[in-house]
Design goal:
The chain has 469 residues and is an all-alpha fold. The protein is built from 19 helices and no strands.
Length: 469
């Protein structure tokens, strides 16, 4: 498995960057590579959040009810997460520049197809293609940065800009989705990708071509991962016999995946990695935060529109205190991690998230809209505080040669968890919104309380030294 030095919003963290991919005697301007990287990362990150506010409009136009809305989100997320484990190898094999161009071209074409989709099955199918393309783009964005910048200080600044681009995309997603849906209709949230994608594609012609590298592929592991995750999503979203069959397939697929990974010479997910306590806690904590953040982004997008009868634009604006806070908090989180080490802000962030979830329990159908909007902010504050140091702690705990694999596993786990959170929470609120909302908040509270306790033990044991896998 090749290196995948990647993070995922909210709260991107500065990853560990290796040496330049293909040194060049002439030193071309790094700006096109940086802009292409930032734009590509922002595009695929924006698509995680921009769709949420447009979901009721999509359901009204195409039908499908709650399960249809869940699939519109999860078709992208699950494909993105499952293939993220192997697309770094694909990037290395054909070169980062080529892989970036292929991914952006496919993402742009799939976005156009989503915007033109005549029915719900077609939209869901094209969302899968978007997710596949996003999985190709993500590992190449940082490869372009590390190829363009040879000076470590310049590279660190470039990565900070890259991370800020992803966080800003998450922050703007709900507002942009609401505005586009109100001014035009839901199709606009996909058409907006077309000019941005074409600009990103054009920039690749000004980026030096990356060298190709041999990279082993774990195709059996990748295929069983896709099977298990897809089946699990079916089991959570659907009901009746289909759900039971899907659950059985998911269990068999997971068992096969674990067995394959334990025996493969170059597994996409080395099981020995989880023997490291810091890695295990970081993956669990990042997953719990993603369940809460993305699951509740989905739920409250429906709350503002379906329960409180707000327009898509008004619903998007309701998220602004929540998502806008992420951009500011990332700077604070990095400073805290530099001063006190990663474990303390990681712990504080999760504690703040737990407190924020307790406050959200106060929300009901009569809560003033401004208050509901404000009460969402502490969850974003906690997520933004915890995630960058969480990633840094994980990078510190593994050997350099495994840093990319660890980053890929962390981000795939977070994407999967966010997607399954949407699937599970959608099923819960379908049977009664207010009761379902309470249940979703309790689930998030339990998950984050457990990971907070695990982080507390991790912080106490930090003095004993790192336990490398």
């Amino acid at each position: 498995m090749p290196r995948q030095d990647i993070t995922q919003a909210p709260g991107p963290a500065a990853p560990l960057l290796p040496v330049r991919d293909s040194p060049s005697a002439s030193a071309p301007s790094p700006t096109p590579a940086l802009v292409a990287s930032l734009l590509g990362f922002a595009l695929i990150t924006l698509d995680v959040s921009v769709v949420n506010v447009a979901l009721p409009s999509m359901a009204s136009a195409l039908g499908g009810g709650m399960s249809g809305m869940q699939w519109v989100v999860d078709a992208y997320t699950i494909a993105f997460a499952a293939l993220l484990l192997s697309t770094g190898a694909f990037s290395d094999r054909i070169g980062a520049t080529r892989a970036y161009a292929v991914g952006i071209a496919l993402f742009t074409a799939a976005s156009m197809a989503c915007g033109l989709a005549p029915n719900l099955p077609a939209l869901i199918g094209f969302r899968v293609v978007q997710g596949i393309a996003a999985a190709v783009v993500l590992p190449t964005t940082l490869a372009l940065v590390r190829q363009a910048y040879t000076d470590p200080a310049d590279r660190a600044r470039a990565v900070s800009l890259w991370a800020a681009g992803g966080t800003t995309a998450v922050a703007l997603g709900p507002v942009a989705g609401g505005a586009l849906t109100t001014v035009w209709d839901w199709r606009a949230v996909f058409f907006i990708n077309l000019p941005l994608g074409l600009v990103a594609l054009a920039l690749t012609f000004r980026v030096p071509r990356s060298a190709r590298r041999p990279a082993p592929l774990d195709l059996p592991g990748q295929l069983t991962a896709v099977l298990a995750l897809s089946a699990l999503a079916f089991a959570v979203i659907e009901d009746g016999p289909v759900a039971l069959v899907a659950l059985g397939v998911a269990v068999v697929g997971l068992a096969a995946f674990v067995r394959i990974e334990a025996r493969h010479a170059h597994p996409v997910v080395p099981m020995k990695l989880f023997r490291n306590r810091t890695v295990a806690v970081a993956v669990a904590s990042g997953s719990a935060i993603s369940v809460a953040f993305y699951g509740l982004l989905f739920v409250f997008g429906l709350y503002f529109q379906q329960v409180r009868d707000q327009s898509a634009l008004a619903a998007g604006l309701m998220f602004l205190p929540m998502t806008g806070l992420l951009v500011v908090v990332n700077v604070l989180s990095g400073r805290l991690a530099n001063r006190y080490g990663p474990r303390l802000p990681m712990l504080i962030g999760q504690l703040v998230s737990v407190g924020g979830l307790l406050l959200l329990l106060l929300i009901d159908a009569e809560t003033p809209l401004w208050l509901a909007s404000v009460l969402l902010a502490p969850l974003a504050l906690g997520s933004g505080l915890a995630l960058p140091p969480l990633t840094a702690a994980m990078m510190e705990a593994v050997p350099t040669e495994r840093a990319g694999i660890a980053a890929g596993v962390l981000n795939a786990a977070r994407q999967v968890s966010g997607g399954l959170g949407v699937a599970a929470f959608g099923a819960l609120i379908a049977d009664g919104f207010e009761a379902g909302l309470r249940t979703t908040l309790v689930i998030c509270l339990v998950l984050l309380t457990l990971t907070t306790l695990a982080t507390t033990r991790l912080a106490r044991g930090a003095a004993a030294g790192p336990d490398r896998p």
